[in-house]
User: Fold these one by one.
Assistant:
Number 1:
Amino acid sequence: MATTSDIKNGFTFKHNNDVYTITEFQHVKPGKGPAFVRTKFKSLSTGRVLSETFPSGHKVEEVRVERHKMQLLYRDDMGYHFMNNETFEQATIMEVMIENPGMMREGDTVEVLYNTEDNMPLTVDLPLYLEMEITYTEPGVKGDTATNTLKPATVETGAEVRVPLFINIGDRIKIDTRTNSYVERAKS
């Protein structure tokens, strides 16, 4: 059992018969009254984000997890098929367990979070940033760059990203996978 003093971002625990990971936390010690920890945590089975406040010293059941680097081999109607880069074992993971499946290409390396008790995958974490090529976008109008306007663009995986007007077909861009948003042009 862990206490609220063990809580940090990425901490995985069991709560109400589900497994959650902490996405945000704040330790609060008011001038009057006992200290408490305000948290936001995400369900690893449904993806729902919940907020809850725990009194300081509250006990939670920690879930031991391991992170494995795995490579996406292919996708079919059973799910996404990954291979462990060290042991070469393969695993099939359902699409609902992946935060942003539209951003994955065959051959990409991701981190898969495994529950050590039953060796079941919990979630798939993509790298924070990916570089992709624009396969389709409307051409920007010359001189129309005075505003911070964005246009839709399709990347090589088929996902849609909003990009500035000066981005054209064939350009490589850097994408934030947490928000599916344009960061910058990729440096050659």
Number 2:
Amino acid sequence: MVAGINYWFAKLLLQRGCNVLIADIALLPEAKVLLEQYTSQPRAIFHNTDVTSWPDLDSMFDAGVTAFGNIDLVCPGAGIYEPHWSNFWHPPGTSVSKDAVDGGRYSILDINVTHPTRVTQMAISHFLNPPPGIEKVSPANPKRIVHISSVAGHVSGLANPMYIASKHAMHGLVRSLAMLETIGIRVNAVAPGLVKTPLWTDHPEKMKLVNEDKDQFCTPEQIADSMLRLCEKEDMVGGIILEVLPQERIVQEYNDPGPNPEHLSLSNGRKGVEDVFGWLGKAGWGVKGNV
């Protein structure tokens, strides 16, 4: 559901006169307000989309073209933070996992890696093959793809290895597409640290890792501002990973010093590690039917 960073980025674009298509499985009340506020020019529309369905993603682009005639900016913003139902420490077949033991896939990777990768392919194809009468992408007619990655893409952590792996994957994808800037397609990503959004605040198992009196949260508005700078600023070239922690910092591809530990730490992060070893200490970890 469009919330947090995605909501604020959509709102920011609408405030700047851009039409916006919101694609998700449902709308939260604040997103419904945007649709009610922006009905003409600029205009906000909703397209029901399961981001794990490639036909749904394809229809999302069709809906954008039908409504607006052209697409200039794509943000594959959906993501999840290793919930118990698709989690490295709760393997497929165990009682809390919704990943089928014979399914051959993990939901967290479908949402966090496969979906943004496929949307990026579709966006590039659309930019190169626009509808009749629409100018093709070029350095004089640039297009943008902005991913929402995470500081997790350049750190490690025992408690959430698949989430971290998914964000490492997105960092690699964005960097690998840097040279598309030469044909007018800029692909980059923000890498926030802690952001006060429902991705955290609606999940007690995550919030127990945080000391709200000590740990520093960014705001989703701040991340949306950083995303806009990636789109607009000439020096924010393709392939850039822009860390926001809460200060902005471009993450270097080689020999990067790493994020500022003062802005990164989860004061109670040890509780997540203790959970992992607690699960591993139970008889039959990973056996079908067990917790």
